[in-house]
Design brief:
Structural class: alpha+beta
Number of helices: 11
Shape: elongated
CATH architecture of the largest domain: Sandwich
Largest sheet: 9 strands, antiparallel
CATH topology of the largest domain: Jelly Rolls
Strand content: 15-25%
Number of domains: 2
Helix content: 40-55%
Number of strands: 9
C-alpha cells in the first residue's frame, strides 16, 4: 500500500484527539438508567478508526447503534442502498437494519459509535397524596416518549449532524478522563442529548404540551414560603406583595381564596403555632419568645394569645410544659 495514501493531511487539530488515548474506555462502564418510561443500557460508547479500504461486512443489531463521522470519508450500505459518507455526517442502524461499512480507498475514516439497548418499562402506579409533586417526571416521560417514537420511525439514510450530537461524545469522555464529579449524570445526559439531537436532525421532534402554572397558586406558594422564612420579622402585606411582585390588594385576595383568612390572620396563626411549641419545650421568658416570633412586646402577645386560646401564654406553659428527663 502506498504510505502516502494512508497518511492524513490535516490543516486543523482533530477535535477528538483526546478520545484516541483510550478510545474504548467508556465501553467498560456498565451504565444503565431510566429516561421517562424507558430503560436505557449503554453497550458501546467509543471512538474508532477505519484505515483506508477497511470494510465491515453486512451485519445487523437488535439494538440501536448510532454512527457519526467526525473525520474522513467512506461508504455505508443500508439495506440495499449505498450512501457516501464524509465528515460531519451521521446514520442510525437498527434495530435489525442490515448494513455494510467501508472506508475510502485513499482516506481513513473515523467514527464515533453509540450502541444502546432501549427497553419500554412498565408504568409504575402513583403513590402518595394527590398533591404530591412529580418534580418534572411527567415532562420527562412525555419528552422521552416523543424522542423514542421519532427514532423508531427515522428514515434509513445518512444525514448531516447539524445539531452537533458528536460534541456529546467528547463531553462524556472528558468527564471520565478528568474524573469529574457526577460522572454518571454527565454520561446519562450526554446519551440523552445524542438521542434528542439525532432525532431533531431528521425531523422536528413533537414537543409535549407542558402545563402552565396556576399563577395565583404560584404567588400564594411564594408568599407562604417567604413568610415562613421571615415570620419573626415585622412583615407587612406591602412587603410580601413586593417580594412576589403583585399588588397588596391582589395578595390579600389570594390569601382569602386559599386560606379563608386574611394575610394578617395567616401570619398571626403561624407565629402562635411557633410560640405554643416554644412555650411547651423552652424555659425562656415570655418576653424572649414574643420578640423572637415577631411580636413587638409580651403584652401584645398576651392580648392576642388570650383572645385566640382563652388562656394566657403563662397558663398555656403551665398546662403543656414538657419536663426534660
Amino acid at each position: 500500500m502506498n504510505l502516502e495514501c494512508s497518511t492524513r493531511v490535516t490543516s486543523k487539530p482533530y477535535a477528538f484527539d483526546l478520545m484516541q488515548e483510550q478510545p474504548y474506555a467508556l465501553d467498560r462502564l456498565d451504565l444503565e438508567f431510566r429516561w421517562g418510561n424507558y430503560g436505557i443500557r449503554m453497550l458501546k460508547f467509543h471512538h474508532t478508526s477505519f484505515p483506508p479500504g477497511r470494510t465491515v461486512s453486512f451485519h445487523k443489531h437488535s439494538d440501536y447503534e448510532f454512527h457519526y463521522i467526525p473525520r474522513g470519508r467512506g461508504k455505508v450500505i443500508l439495506g440495499e442502498v449505498p450512501y457516501a459518507l464524509q465528515e460531519g455526517m451521521l446514520y442510525l442502524t437498527g434495530p435489525n437494519v442490515l448494513h455494510y461499512q467501508e472506508a475510502d480507498e485513499q482516506e481513513a475514516m473515523d467514527e464515533l459509535c453509540l450502541h444502546i439497548d432501549i427497553v419500554k418499562l412498565e408504568v409504575e402506579a402513583s403513590h402518595g397524596s394527590s398533591d404530591t409533586k412529580d418534580w418534572g417526571i411527567k415532562w420527562e416521560v412525555a419528552e422521552a416518549e416523543a424522542c423514542i417514537q421519532q427514532l423508531q420511525s427515522l428514515p434509513v439514510r445518512p444525514a448531516v449532524d447539524q445539531y452537533r450530537a458528536m460534541d456529546c461524545f467528547l463531553t462524556a469522555y472528558r468527564a471520565w478522563h478528568e474524573n469529574q464529579p457526577g460522572l454518571f449524570t454527565v454520561l446519562k445526559q450526554a446519551i440523552i442529548q445524542i438521542l434528542l439531537r439525532t432525532a431533531r436532525t431528521y425531523a422536528s421532534v413533537p414537543q409535549p404540551d407542558l402545563p402552565s402554572r396556576d399563577m395565583k397558586h404560584y404567588r400564594y406558594q411564594q408568599a407562604v414560603q417567604f413568610i415562613k422564612d421571615n415570620y419573626m420579622e415585622p412583615l407587612t402585606l406591602e412587603v410580601v406583595a413586593e417580594r412576589v411582585q403583585i399588588s397588596p390588594r391582589q395578595l390579600q385576595r389570594i390569601f382569602r381564596e386559599h386560606t379563608n383568612a386574611t394575610f394578617s390572620e395567616y401570619i398571626e396563626q403561624l407565629r402562635l403555632t411557633h410560640i405554643c411549641s416554644e412555650l411547651s419545650l423552652s424555659s425562656e421568658t415570655i418576653d424572649q419568645i414574643a420578640f423572637r416570633n415577631g411580636f413587638s412586646s409580651s403584652n401584645y402577645l398576651h392580648y392576642v394569645f388570650k383572645k385566640k386560646f382563652g388562656i394566657t401564654p403563662m397558663q398555656y406553659r403551665q398546662q403543656h410544659h414538657v419536663v426534660s428527663p
